[in-house]
């Protein structure tokens, strides 16, 4: 991992080079000699930078869907955004969350294994307060959930998982299903402690209450679809052509669509007084001559030019010209 210097560290380094405390040539030698990088086997790198970028894109959509969903349910200001996507051991994730929190354990077919949507108590109880008619503020002391509160939270977070299904549609068609709702992380063991997970942290603001929503996805769960998280797969899936069955079905549906076809003889502008004084035998002059073709409109666009006539004593038109659209003009002047 490349270390990124802060602005203060950059200024201090430039000042040391300017004053002569540090020599640029010595720094170059140290850089050449330093070829060893430490590796922590307890923090196995299972997700590449490409995978992290793809997960970030997917869950930015998830954050937008969640914002829309909670705004509609709570009828108050809600803002959710992705803060970071990182990989770490499952045990480290468990130790980083509060002892009393809301843990939504769920499965998402066709993936095998369980994932967790952890909601900070401030956020969860603010939602609960809002749903029960309050202003949406978190209590000063967080206690255990009652049966009614548990049922309400299970319902709202079970439906929130539908947003996860929408966000992952570009990668795979998931079917999330809430399995259980826990409040003590010590009782939740979905994978081994050393298993690498992808942790998606979402900054959440509900009214004046702020907190975090964390989505824990074990590597072993999404390992079968890891190739789909590569940039190459995204580009290939965008270029994928429709199957012949889909094209045939689309053509059948389009062929059954009804559109109005109108042959316009012409138009004219007269005043209201002239219209009121019209009598049998009066002639209204149209905007075109009798030898001009009729404009045939499909919908509201002119598509053909035709001439009027009769067929078996019924009025008819004969198409003489097809009106082309989007013809590029010549560059020659």
From TrEMBL:
Gene3D superfamilies reported in the protein's UniProt record:
CheC-like, SpoA-like
Q: What is its main location?
A: other
Q: State the annotated membrane topology for this chain.
A: Peripheral membrane protein
Asked if Signal is a keyword of the record, the answer is: no
Keyword field: Bacterial flagellum, Cell membrane, Cell projection, Chemotaxis, Cilium, Flagellar rotation, Flagellum, Membrane
> What's the superkingdom here?
Bacteria
Compartments (UniProt record): Bacterial flagellum basal body; Cell membrane
Q: Which InterPro entries match?
A: CheC-like_sf (IPR028976), Flag_FliM (IPR001689), FliN-like_C (IPR001543), SpoA-like_sf (IPR036429)
Q: Which residues form the Flagellar motor switch protein FliN-like C-terminal domain?
A: 252-323
What CDD domains does the record point to?
A: FliM (cd17908)
Family (UniProt): Belongs to the FliM family.
Q: What NCBIfam families does the record point to?
A: fliM_switch (TIGR01397)
Name assigned to this protein: Flagellar motor switch protein FliM
Q: Tell me the organism.
A: Cohnella kolymensis
